[in-house]
Amino acid sequence: MAKIVILTGAGISAESGIRTFRASDGLWEEHRIDDVATPEGFSRDPALVHEFYNARRAAARVAQPNAAHLALAELEADARYDVLIVTQNVDDLHERAGSQNVIHMHGSLFGALCHACGHRWPAPEVMTATDSCPACRRTATRPDIVWFGEMPYQMERIVAALEDADLFVSIGTSGNVYPAAGFVQGATEAGVETLELNLEPSTGTQLFDTSHHGPATQIVPQWVRERLARA
Ligand code: APR
Q1: Torsion angle, alpha carbons of 16, 209, 3, 183, to 10
Q2: Is any atom of ligand 1 closer than 6 Å to the C-beta of 215?
Q3: Sign of the CA dihedral 46, 48, 54, 57?
C-alpha cells in the first residue's frame, strides 16, 4: 500500500461556501486574530469568541462536502492506498464526505472543552460564556479549537506518519501557519515525495517537488483520478 499523508487547509472547503482566513474577503480581514483566536482574547472577552465560533459552526453545518472532499474519500477507499488526512480545518466536511482516517490538528467546531478540568464533550449549536462543564460544573467552557500560541493536536502521530509516508500532499493551505507550514520540509528531509494542490502558489510553493494550481474541486479529483487509473 502506498502511504499518502494529505494536509488540508481552508482552501479545500472554500467551494463549499466556508470562508478562508487570508483572502481579501477572508475571516482575518474582519476579525483580529488576537481577539478571537488566542487564549488571551478568550480570557478578555469569552462572549465575543463564542459568538465568532457559533457563526463558524452554523456555516459549517449548512455546508456540503465538495468534489475535492469526495475525491479524497474515494482515494482512501481504494485498497492500494493508505491515506491519512491531517486537516487544519475545524469543519467536518472530510468526515461527511466519507473519509475515516482524519486528524483535526487545529481542533473542531463540534467539540467543547473545559479549560478548568480538560473534559471534552460535543458542542451545542450555540455555546455561551455561561455554559458550565458537565464534568466539573465550572463555568470554563471553550470551543475545542487550537488557538495561536497553543500546541496543535496529535503532533507525534502526524510527524511519525509524515516520515513514514511515500507521498505528502498539501491542499488548499497558504503555508503561513506553523507547524503545518513546515510539514513539506520535514517530508523532504525524510525523503518523501511532495505535491502541492492549491488555487495559487503558496508561501512555500518552491519547496514542493511538484505543484498544480487551480480550484480544489477541479485539481483534486483530477489528481485522484490519475492515481486510481494507475495499474
Ligand atoms: N481551491 C484551492 N485552494 C484554494 C481555494 C480553492 N477553491 N480557495 C482558496 N484557496 C487557497 C488560497 O489560495 C490560500 O492559499 O487556500 C489557501 C487558504 O489559506 P488560508 O486562508 O491562510 O487558510 P489556511 O492555510 O488553512 O490557514 C491555516 O490559519 O488562521 C489559522 O487556524 C487557522 O487553520 C487555519 C490556519
Answers
A1: -70
A2: yes
A3: negative
